[in-house]
């Protein structure tokens, strides 16, 4: 049985660790996130995805005993104090000048490639200390959400979680105006790690179309699952109660 297939696309020399708090589906979640910074590109993913792909690399992309895979998977899950459900992975400057986002809706895997555009930041003359770091304030509106961000120029790099990058320093804390989403830096490491890309049979789609597919899934999970198995959606498929879907990046209708 194959655990997964990955390929190394760069090597990171710098890693930022964030706690991502989110309220996407009527309940609050938390996930540890990993930002790997390489010479050519960056990868931002959940700790679970990061460890899972690292495990696939140790298996050398070769079939393994099913019992061993189950054992290693359980060990991986037990190593995380909280996991959340963050399936997307963001690659910055991959391909060059663009960004790629991989995601999964039920069994369907999607790939989005779009132009790399930095947020339009407004720097605010306000400072405070966060976790021992002297930080300055900035604001932006990004994909329908207003963000307040605190960044530290002690680490004079324009890095940050998700798409919140391009400031005169590293993003330490970011919160959206609704309180539904936040990223908080808790550790920085200088060490070499492979930056991996999951090799899958992806459907290529715009990010907005992927989010619309996710909304259809939460609107009626049973119908989406049955339609995936049947290969089409029909009105006589089963129905479940809708769950309000509130994505990090708002859907454009």
Verbal overview:
InterPro entries: GLPGLI. This is GLPGLI family protein. By secondary structure, this protein is α+β, with helices and mostly antiparallel strands. Helix content is 19%, strand content 41%. Strands 1, 2, 3, 4, 5, 6, 7, 8, 9, 10, 11, 12 and 13 form a 13-stranded mixed beta sheet that branches.
Give a short summary of the structure:
The chain is α+β, with helices and mostly antiparallel strands. The protein contains 4 helices and 13 strands.
For the record, give the distance between the C-alpha atoms at the N and C termini, rounded to a whole number.
41 Å
Oligomer: single chain
Percent strand equals 35-45%
- Element order, helices and strands? EEEHHEEEEEEEEEEHH
Largest sheet: 13 strands, mixed
Helical stretch count?
4
Low-confidence stretches: none
CATH topology: outer membrane lipoprotein receptor (LolB), chain A
Our Rg estimate from Cα atoms comes to 19 Å
Q: Based on the coordinates given, report the CATH architecture.
A: Clam
Mean model confidence by pLDDT:
88
Number of strands: 13
Percent of residues in helices:
10-25%
Shape assignment: globular
**Class by alpha and beta content:** alpha+beta
User: Which class in CATH terms?
Assistant: Mainly Beta
The total domain count is: 1
């Amino acid at each position: 049985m194959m655990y997964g297939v990955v390929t190394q696309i760069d090597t990171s020399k710098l890693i930022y660790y964030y706690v991502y708090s989110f309220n996407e589906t009527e309940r609050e979640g938390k996930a540890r996130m990993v930002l790997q910074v390489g010479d050519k590109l960056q990868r931002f993913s959940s700790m679970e995805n990061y460890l899972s792909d690292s495990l696939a690399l140790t298996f050398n992309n070769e079939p393994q005993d099913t019992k061993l895979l189950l054992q290693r998977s359980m060990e991986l899950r037990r190593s995380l104090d909280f996991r959340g459900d963050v399936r997307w992975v963001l690659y910055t400057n991959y391909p060059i000048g663009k960004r790629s986002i991989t995601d999964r809706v039920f069994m369907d895997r999607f790939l989005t490639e779009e132009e790399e555009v930095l947020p339009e930041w407004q720097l605010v003359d306000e400072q405070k200390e966060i976790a021992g770091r002297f930080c300055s304030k900035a604001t932006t509106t990004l994909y329908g959400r207003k963000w307040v961000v605190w960044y530290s120029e002690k680490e004079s790099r324009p890095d940050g979680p998700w798409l919140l990058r391009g400031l005169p320093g590293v993003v330490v804390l970011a919160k959206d105006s609704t309180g539904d989403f936040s990223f908080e830096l808790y550790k920085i490491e200088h060490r070499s790690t492979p930056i991996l890309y999951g090799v899958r049979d992806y459907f290529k789609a715009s990010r907005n179309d992927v989010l619309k597919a996710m909304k259809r899934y939460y609107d009626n999970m049973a119908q989406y699952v049955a339609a995936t198995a049947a290969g089409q959606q029909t009105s006589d498929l089963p129905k479940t109660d809708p769950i309000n879907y509130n994505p990090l990046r708002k859907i454009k209708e």
